[in-house]
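At this stage, I put together one protein's amino acid sequence and its backbone structure tokens, which the following lines show:
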Amino acid sequence: MKYAGIYNADGTLLGEIAYVVRKYTGRGHCELCDITHGTLRRKPEWDAVCERAGIEIDLLHRDEASADQLRAAGDLPAVVVDDGSGWRLAAGPAALDRCEGSPERLVELLIN
């Protein structure tokens, strides 16, 4: 199975700056970013949890995701999965929010 996590932000420099401004002014955030990243960089815990579970999740900004991935995701952020029959939603914003920033909770949700 292939997984893709799609952030609710664009991957451009301007997109990253806009996201940081929204987050730190309280006007928005990305639940997936809260799970995979700390204040300035990717959480080492994220990579360790994925490795232990034996899954690989491609992390994409919304402007990097394919049309099929975005269609399956619906509202962002989201994690989508392709089991060979096309992309489908594995976890949307509400499910990601319930993970409370925990990589373990997200991986557990995906593999159970």
About this structure: Helices lie at 13-24, 31-36, 44-53, 67-73, 93-98, 103-111. The mean pLDDT is 90. The first helix runs from residue 13 to 24. The two ends are 14 Å apart (CA to CA).
